[in-house]
C-alpha cells in the first residue's frame, strides 16, 4: 500500500521533468511512508513520454498515465486522482513553480488532522505583468460571483486526504475547475503560504486561449450570476428607456425643439443590440457546457499506462 500519491500533470515538459523527478524524489524520501510519483502525460508532443518511460523502468515509484491527446490540465489532475492509491494525495505542477519542499509542511498539517492543505501564493516570480494582473482580477471576480468559499490566489498545488479524493472522483462534470470542487466538498481545510518560483525551464503551457477557457469554466461551474446579469441589465435599460421616452415627449409637446436625428437613434440601437448579443453569448457559454455534459463522453482516453492499478471504483460505477 502506498501512503502518499503525488500527481504531476505534464504537457511538453521534457526540459524540466528530470529535475522535477529529482527534487520530488529527495523530498518524498524524507517522508514516513511508501509513495508513488504519478505523472499524467497530457498528450505531449516532445520527449516527455520517453523520459517518463525511462524513469519508470529505473524507479518503480514512478508511474504514469498517457493520454491519447491533450485533454487539458484539469482533466489530467482528475485522471491522476482516479488512479492515485495513497492515503494522502498531493497535486503539484511539473515546472517547479510550486516548490516540492513544501510537501513536507503539507504532510505535517495533514497529520494534525486537516483534510485539505492548499498552498496560497503570496508572490509570483518571473511571470508577466499581464498574467499577474489577469490572475489577480480573476480570483477576485470568481470570489465575488459565487457563494462557495474559493480561496484567493490559490492554484492546484495542494494535499488532499483520501476522503476528499474519493468525493472528487465521483464528480464527473466535464468543465472541471478542480480547485473550486475541492472547496465545494468542504472538510477541514487550511492554507500554507509560499512564494511562487519561476518556471524551471520551458514556457507556460497556458496560452491566453486556454486561460480564458479555464476562467470561464471556473465562473460558469460555480455561479449563475452572469445569467442573472441579463435580467438586471434588462430592467435597468427598460427603466432608462421609459425616462428617456418622457423626456422626448416633453420636448415634443411643450417646447419647440425635438430630439435630433438619426445619430442618437443609431447609437441607441447599436448599444441595445450589443447588450443583447453579449447576453446571448453568456447564455451560449452555459448552453455549450450543458451540451458537453449531456453527451456524456468519457473525460479522457488513455493510450497507455504503467504501474497503476484499477481506476477508482466510484469512477467505474459511472461506467466511463
Ligand atoms: N499542463 C497540462 N496540460 C495542459 C497545460 C498544462 O498538463 O494542457 C500542465 C503543465 O505541464 C504544468 C501544469 O499543467 O505541469 C501547469 O501549467 P503551466 O506551468 O504551463 O501553467 P502556468 O504556471 O504558466 O499557469
Ligand atoms: Mg507553471
UniProtKB/TrEMBL annotation:
Ranges annotated as spanning the membrane: 229-253, 265-287
Residue stretches making up the Glycosyltransferase 2-like domain: 5-168
UniProt GO MF annotations: dolichyl-phosphate beta-D-mannosyltransferase activity
Membrane topology field: Multi-pass membrane protein
GO cellular component, one term: plasma membrane
rRNA-binding found in the keyword field: no
Chief location of this protein within or outside the cell: membrane
Cell location: Cell membrane
UniProt KW Protein transport keyword: no
Protein name stated in the entry: Dolichol-phosphate mannosyltransferase
Species annotation: Thermaerobacillus caldiproteolyticus
Source taxonomy: Bacteria, Bacillati, Bacillota, Bacilli, Bacillales
Amino acid at each position: 500500500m502506498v501512503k502518499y500519491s503525488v500527481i504531476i500533470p505534464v504537457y511538453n515538459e521534457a526540459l524540466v521533468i528530470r529535475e522535477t523527478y529529482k527534487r520530488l524524489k529527495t523530498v518524498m524520501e524524507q517522508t514516513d511512508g511508501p509513495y508513488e510519483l504519478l505523472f499524467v502525460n497530457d498528450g505531449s508532443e516532445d520527449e516527455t513520454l520517453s523520459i517518463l518511460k525511462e524513469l519508470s523502468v529505473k524507479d518503480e515509484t514512478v508511474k504514469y498515465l498517457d493520454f491519447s491527446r491533450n485533454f487539458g490540465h484539469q482533466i489530467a489532475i482528475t485522471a491522476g486522482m482516479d488512479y492515485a492509491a495513497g492515503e494522502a494525495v498531493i497535486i503539484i505542477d511539473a515546472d517547479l513553480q510550486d516548490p516540492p519542499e513544501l510537501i513536507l509542511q503539507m504532510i505535517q498539517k495533514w497529520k494534525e488532522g486537516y483534510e485539505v492543505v492548499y498552498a496560497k501564493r503570496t508572490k509570483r516570480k518571473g511571470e508577466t505583468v499581464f498574467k499577474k494582473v489577469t490572475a489577480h482580477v480573476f480570483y477576485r471576480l470568481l470570489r465575488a460571483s459565487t457563494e462557495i468559499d474559493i480561496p484567493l490566489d490559490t492554484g492546484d498545488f495542494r494535499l488532499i486526504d483520501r476522503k476528499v479524493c474519493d468525493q472528487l472522483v465521483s464528480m464527473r462534470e466535464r468543465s472541471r475547475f478542480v480547485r473550486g470542487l475541492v472547496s465545494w466538498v468542504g472538510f477541514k481545510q487550511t492554507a500554507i503560504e509560499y512564494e511562487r518560483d519561476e518556471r524551471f525551464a520551458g514556457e507556460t503551457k497556458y496560452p491566453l486561449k486556454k486561460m480564458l477557457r479555464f476562467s470561464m469554466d471556473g465562473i460558469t461551474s460555480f455561479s449563475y450570476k452572469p445569467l442573472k446579469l441579463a435580467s438586471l441589465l434588462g430592467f435597468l435599460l427598460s427603466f432608462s428607456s421609459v425616462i428617456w421616452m418622457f423626456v422626448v415627449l416633453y420636448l415634443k409637446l411643450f417646447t419647440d425643439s425635438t430630439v435630433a436625428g438619426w445619430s442618437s437613434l443609431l447609437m441607441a440601437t447599436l448599444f441595445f443590440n450589443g447588450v443583447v448579443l453579449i447576453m446571448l453569448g453568456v447564455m451560449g457559454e452555459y448552453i455549450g457546457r450543458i451540451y458537453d455534459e449531456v453527451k456524456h463522453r468519457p473525460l479522457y482516453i488513455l493510450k497507455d499506462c504503467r504501474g497503476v492499478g484499477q481506476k477508482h471504483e466510484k469512477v467505474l460505477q459511472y461506467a466511463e
